[in-house]
Amino acid sequence: MASNEQTAALLRDAINRLTRRLRQTRPVGELTQSQFSALTSLDLAGALTPRELAEAERVQPPTMTRIVNRLEERGLVQRLPHPTDRRQVVLSTTESGRSVLAANRRAREAWLGGQVATLSAEEQETLRRAAHIVDRISRA
Amino acid sequence: MASNEQTAALLRDAINRLTRRLRQTRPVGELTQSQFSALTSLDLAGALTPRELAEAERVQPPTMTRIVNRLEERGLVQRLPHPTDRRQVVLSTTESGRSVLAANRRAREAWLGGQVATLSAEEQETLRRAAHIVDRISRA
DNA sequence: CTAAGCTCATTAGTTAAGCTAACGATTGTG
DNA sequence: CACAATCGTTAGCTTAACTAATGAGCTTAG
Q1: HTH marR-type domain location, by residue (chains A, B) (predicted)?
Q2: Max CA-CA distance within chain A?
Q3: Mean pLDDT score of chain B, rounded to an integer?
Q4: C-alpha to C-alpha distance for B71 and B77, rounded to whole angstroms
Q5: Domain limits of chain B?
Q6: How far is the CA of B90 from the C1' of C23 (A)?
Q7: Is the CB of A79 under 7 A from strand C?
Q8: Which residues 27-46 of chain A have a CB within 8 Å of chain B?
Q9: Residues 9-28, chain B, touching A (beta carbon < 8 A)
């Protein structure tokens, strides 16, 4: 029987390897991992303050400021004043942001989707289950 | 039925979230993810040239030069001349490197191991299976 | 009802990690 | 033996993470 630590090590190593592998497949000029992830979260949520988005991405607020800066420079995100609190800012995706996001999603999933396609139905189901378990762990 | 792309997206998102979560648990002064991973690979292999280690870590040679520099500054790794080819260098872990590695491994797995412990035996098995599948994909 | 303190976003400055291009030393080859 | 290839490194750029500090705006306690 594998110990909790052994399972943890297996999981961590597998995740590290896949993370590095995925980084290699990013085409130049496309969104970085952080930009892509932040844009996705924002698009799903509809509108968030920088702090809320930072918390969703598990990053400190200054880090999110920078990511949002780059996205705003490219016109993918907009900063609007908060209706009642003038300290705050409300972030939302632009039309252009949503289409860039969709294009990036397709490109990103091409490689990994191709790999998934080579797996048996049972293996694919294992991956989906594992993804949900990992999500639960990450929230803890 | 989930499409290959949906499964890929689930997997990628789960991995991103856990990666960021794990980064948060790194104590200051400890090895970074890259350092830890490189040191682990080197320790497993015994001795490698910088290029071989870069390939194992799926990183370009200059990136590995920097990582090795930091590890060497801390005395965790040593560079020795190649026996026959004076262009090459042979890297190996030091005694100190191996003990730092072991301590780091324990610290890193404490949090994740704790999370794994809260899962059912079936869920743990799902994670182990998924880790193996992901490893196979990453090698492709 | 205003002064003090809190919260929000941002800026500044550090560290780390990734990349490509270019270089010096060395080896192999035509 | 000259020329090409290889190896590791350096240099220079970008991205991303952090903490500390700042300024603007809100909230509240006296």
Answers
A1: 4-136
A2: 57
A3: 91
A4: 6
A5: 27-109
A6: 21
A7: yes
A8: 33, 37, 40
A9: 9-22, 24
Tens digits of per-residue pLDDT, A97-128?
999 999 988 888 888 899 999 999 999 999 99
pLDDT tens, residue by residue, B33-66: 899 999 999 999 999 999 999 999 999 999 999 9
List the 103-122 stretch of B: residues with Cβ below 8 A of A: 105, 108-109, 112-119
Residue A36 region by backbone torsions, left for phi larger than 0, else alpha for psi between -120 and 50, else beta? alpha
In the predicted structure, residue B28 carries a pLDDT above the cut 70? no
Tens digit of pLDDT for each residue in B118-130?
999 999 999 999 9
Please indicate whether, in this complex, the C-beta atoms of B113 and A22 are within 8 angstroms of each other: no
Tell me which fold the domain B27-109 belongs to: Arc Repressor Mutant, subunit A (1.10.10)
B92 vs A19, more confident: B92
Residue contact A12–B2, C-beta within 8 A: no
In A117-136, which positions are buried (b, 16+ CB within 10 angstroms) versus exposed (e)? eebeeebbebbbbbbebbee
**The domain A26-115 is classified under which CATH number: 3.40.50.1220, 3.30.450.20, 2.40.160.60, 1.10.10.10?**
1.10.10.10
**Structure tokens given for B53:** 């280690």
Of B residues 96-135, those with CB within 7 angstroms of nucleic strand D are none
Q: Please give the share of chain A, as a percent, with pLDDT higher than 90.
A: 63
